């Protein structure tokens, strides 16, 4: 059994990525994992200032919601980032959070596997490539962790449209069952 932390980054109400993240979480729970989901909705997360004080203290000098998320991430066995694809890239709030997780680099983090679930209006296979590459770049900075896989669900646009998409919900559930 792994402790899995799922971080959803869409700020949209009735988010399609949140709907699919719920299915993924159900699959992971049914596979016997302990799952916690965090949404960035309503969170205050400032931009990284680049001061690098966190490399000595393992804490950011800013006192906002990123600190609590970092504390949960450091203790998870597996991290899953869920993002809508905007302009062929991860959401801006996801990138801001990744930058703010800088204190984890020099910390004794527990996670070894990192995954991504992405959702977009466009459905071509290349659509998530830059988002996956961006997350891969972040994971590459953690020598004890690796990027373990991604699921892309394309062709979903309108708010809550994913709630009526049984095939994608099933894919997300199965993806959750395979998380380690």
Gyration radius from CA atoms, angstroms: 15 Å
CATH architecture: 3-Layer(aba) Sandwich
CATH class: Alpha Beta
Shape: globular
Q: For the terminal residues, how far apart are their CA atoms?
A: 8 Å
Q: What is the mean pLDDT?
A: 96
CATH topology: Rossmann fold
**Secondary structure category:** alpha/beta
- Low-pLDDT stretches are none
DSSP strand count: 5
The largest beta-sheet arranges its strands as 2-1-3-4-5
- DSSP strand content: 15-25%
Which percent range fits the helix content? 25-40%
The SSE order reads EHEHHEHEHEH
CATH superfamily annotation: Flavodoxin domain
User: What is the count of distinct domains?
Assistant: 1
How many helices in DSSP terms? Answer: 6
Largest sheet, in brief, is:
5 strands, parallel
Would you kindly provide a written description of the structure presented here, covering whatever features stand out?
By secondary structure, the chain is α/β, with parallel strands linked by helices. The chain has one domain (3-178): Flavodoxin domain (Rossmann fold, 3-Layer(aba) Sandwich). It has 6 helices and 5 strands. The protein has helices at 16-30, 54-57, 65-74, 92-100, 129-140, 166-178, and strands at 3-8, 34-39, 78-84, 113-119, 146-153. It has a 5-stranded parallel β-sheet with strand order 2-1-3-4-5, with helices on both faces. Strand 3 (78-84), helix 4 and strand 4 (113-119) form a beta-alpha-beta unit. The N and C termini lie close together (8 Å). The mean pLDDT is 96. This is NADPH-dependent FMN reductase.
